[in-house]
Amino acid sequence: MPPRIATSPFATKAVLTALAMLLTMAAISFHLALQTERDGIFADFHAFYVAGSLALEGRAGDAYHMATMEQAQHLFTGVDDFMPWTYPPPYTLLVTALAALPLGLAYALFMALTLTAYVLVLRRIAGDHLPGVLIAMLPVMTLTVMTGQNGFLTGALTGWFLLSFMARRPQAGWPLGLMILKPHLAAGIALLALIERRWQAMAIAAAVVVTALLVPTWVFGAGIWSAFLDGVAESGEFLTQGHYPLFRMTSLYAMTLSTGLPSGAAFAVQAAGALLALGLLLLGWRRGLPPRWLAASACAASVFVSPYNYDYDLGILGVGLAFVLPDLLQRTRTAEQIGLLAVGWTAIGYGLITAFLADPDMAGAGDTPPSLMAAPLMLLIALVAMTLRRAPLAEPAGAVSVQRHEWSVTRY
């Protein structure tokens, strides 16, 4: 996108106003649906709320068993949907607190707080280029608000870690430890902390993780962990059998499985892709990539680690983009910027579009759209990487200057 749009305060206001309106409408509709008849509204946040409600009833372990979770979801919403609960007990503790509030208020509070944290982190990283990041990430942000998912939370924690990491602050361990909520998305940043030997930050992260594990154990009892492990095993079977909506997944596993390969081969492809992604991150560190580019690489690598990765998890790519957008704009012309935006919207918006176009009656019948998100995501990351290797273009007179942030990363 042209620099004047990427730095336009009006674009920021427009995007955030649209998201705030969507958030408000969703909160009202969720509230009204429960005040009248169960009208078939079911979003991801409903599963959060049901899991929290079960925990409030002293049945936290039941959320990890699909049969009891599905029954509770039906009683709450009147909808039969496939939404297993596989989050670790610390996240169950979080949604338990949310379930103490009315549904609409719980959703609005969770989304407003996490969206605000995400935007503030992006602004801290991108500076004047925040509008461009918001425009590029609009499909994911829209989907996250619509579903009530936690992509803003994980994105904010990732950005918080990277900002502290670049400033060489031990406090980077706090967000790293809090990523226990979704540990597979922390693979890239954890590798950075390890290879940079940030022992103080890692010690803080370990303390945060231990605390996060002990508190739900004290609240729910030790049995919560056996229930969690059983739930993970059960969900693994569901994933192997293709019960999850693969077209919303961004992993190589989902893409290869949807082409007809057996699950074993799909897992092998996923493992190879994860090792390659982390290996390229390590290679970039060894070759001394600029700190901002290395931070973006950590975000990109994390997307390809887990076979269970959804489109709403792509909020961390917004963090990576915030680090490199100024450099991208320096190296591309308007047509190229529009092309990159088109590829990006295709890569991160495929699940949102197909969710509207897919026939819900076909769910689980083998006729759902194929999982294609991994391919355009890899194309997008490759195009960005190749673009960054170019020399900056000569700046025409009167062009918007590109804001730079430099951090010194000294290896021990």
How would you characterize the overall build of this protein?
By secondary structure, the chain is mainly alpha-helical. The protein has one domain. It is built from 19 helices and no strands. The radius of gyration is 21 Å and the shape is globular. 46% of the residues are buried. The C terminus is likely disordered.
Give a short summary of the structure:
This protein has 412 residues and is mostly helical. It has one domain (3-388). The protein has helices at 3-6, 9-35, 44-56, 66-77, 89-99, 103-126, 130-136, 138-147, 151-166, 173-178, 187-195, 199-220, 223-240, 252-258, 263-286, 291-302, 315-331, 334-357, 374-388.
Give the % helix.
55-70%
Q: Enumerate how many helices there are, as a single number.
A: 19
* Overall pLDDT level: 89
Please give the largest β-sheet. Answer: none
**Low-pLDDT windows of residues:** 360-366, 396-412
**What is the general shape?**
globular
Alpha carbon gap, first and last residue: 39 Å
| Total number of strands | 0
In percent, how much strand structure appears in the residues?
under 5%
Q: Taking Cα atoms only, what radius of gyration do you get, to the nearest Å?
A: 21 Å
Derived structural class:
mainly alpha
Whole-number count of domains: 1
- In terms of quaternary structure, the protein is single chain
**Elements, N to C (H/E):** HHHHHHHHHHHHHHHHHHH
